[in-house]
Fold each of these.
Amino acid sequence: MAEAASCLDLKASFFKSLFTAGDLASLLMPRGGRHAGGADTAPNGIQGQPRNSPDYYYFSNCGVMTVVRRLRAAPPLVRVGVWIDDIRIAGSKSGATLWEAQVLRNADSCHATIGEDRESGATQYTFLGVRFDHTHQAVSLSEKFVRSVCAMSALNSSTIAEMEVMVSRFLNAAAILGTRLYDNYFFIKAGRRRLSATNRGILQETSPANLPPSVVGLGERL
């Protein structure tokens, strides 16, 4: 039987303030240390949002195992993926739709709003710019994603903000198309250096990216 998934777009208006003390106690909050109540650092060293930020309430609402206690977690045969407010619940059709119903009940109890873009127990669907076809076991870039990339500014005239968006979309596309990122090492490194300069206040997001011609060529080929 082909795998299926339910995809939701969850809006968390005043999500945090509507959690009860019991709900908060079920979250795996850090105890003590420099990250208690502050930013969480992933194993790769990237510092994320505070543990009491809305992102963690998205995770807890969906029953993500690493955030909630086992009692409130999604069933083991259901996989839950959360990216900001986009949620994918994958597994068998019955498993995905059953846990989707639970997530919707959780959202309703917190007065959270579900967006219009929604798939329920689908074998073919789009999630984060990727078209999944479980019937034929295939993935591809969605038409909307391809159009957005084609409509972007040329690299040789883009700002740092535009370059950041373009690089992130290139990385997303590379993962689907099987492109070797090592072949584009210098292009990615040039983008990282400019973003680092922005973080240090040396450049502004509206500043020209000023990518070297050789790097522009690499990006255009990617």
Amino acid sequence: MSANIFSFDLNVSLGALEIGIVLGVFLFGIETLQTFNYYKRFPKDSNLLKGAVGVVWLLELGHTISTLHALYLQTVTFYGQPIHILSPPLSEEIPILLSGLIYTIVQTFFANRVRVLSGQWYTMALACVLGFFRFVGDVWIAALLLIYVRVTVLLEWRWLVTTSLSLDLSTDILITASLCSCLWNMRSCESKRIRSMLDTLILWAIESTILTSASSVIQIILFMTRTDLIWAGVYVVQSKLFSNAMLASLNGRQRLRECTTANMSDIHFGSTHPSRKADAVAISFEDARSLRSLDVERK
């Protein structure tokens, strides 16, 4: 299928891209606030985790600047020259690479959470393999745009774009299903409050992946059924959904710990430090392993 500038509705193509970029800036502001709160509340997290949060924020900063620059070029510098809609500037290709890196870091974070919680490597290994191929696909797409300098080349490589988006969706579902399965298996404990807390964690896991998975599905449908760029409006927002999901998960530990501390007084762990057990339910790189052994004293 081919497409040219005369088959493009600029109100749809450029309008969707502009709305997506503006929404992305708004989400970046939320991410910045979440990042500030994270460093303020969790100074004792591992350097690896704090470094990952910082890298994700820097990548999102570059992503936001690049998309705003592309929007300025197409709506101001090249005003009245619609041909440039099909010949994207370099600043439209950079976000593709940055998005790929963000997806890789965030999905590795959640996959590692499953590994620590379950004590098994295979889910994380499979997620990393899928994430690697997704990143390769993003690099390939960026290279095609750089070489051919026209968006319509993606219509000739539909399988590549849809495969990349499908890998993203598959990784999301794999990680969420594995995490929910681990938490559900732990509901065998006798305490109703612990089961309620685990139900909350399961709900959080599902909520954290709904928007990212939905955005992938929407992109696939729009890309396969239309020849315009409306799908790109969703694409420029997706990385912000990933990074905000990661930060919301990390910052949510404080509320969960407070709730857990209040509910631990009637639960016997064989320890005189129930507050330490509260930390066990705050799943992260350091303490997810403790949640797997709620009835064992944390040394």
Amino acid sequence: FRAGENPEITSKDYLSLFLLKEEQTAAYSVEIWKRFRKWGGIPTAITQNVKDLLASREVENIFENSDFVLMLNQAAGDRAILAKQLNISPQQMKYVTHTEAGEGLIFYGNVVLPFVDRFPKDTELYRVMTTKPEEVGEA
């Protein structure tokens, strides 16, 4: 993140869900998250299952104070949690229900925006960005 407007101050902090499973390290991680935001940082998190992230009340505070959430295909339990937490309609939730790669919802502030992104697979950029195990080894 960039602290304030000073381009000289940069840092990267990668929080693992392993840190969020224990109460003490979860509380510390949340404190770091809040301080980064206070200092003008843009903390970013990624998770496979939102219910794991929201298992702790401390960590739930991070989610509740997030202005931007990008959702891809979600399991039924996670869809229910996201619909309730973000006030997403059943119609909108169809965009994260049994969808293809590159389809989902963007939650920003109070706006929910569906998206479909068919990124061309025959490009160098796709080759270096893909996370599909069967494609990673093809490089």
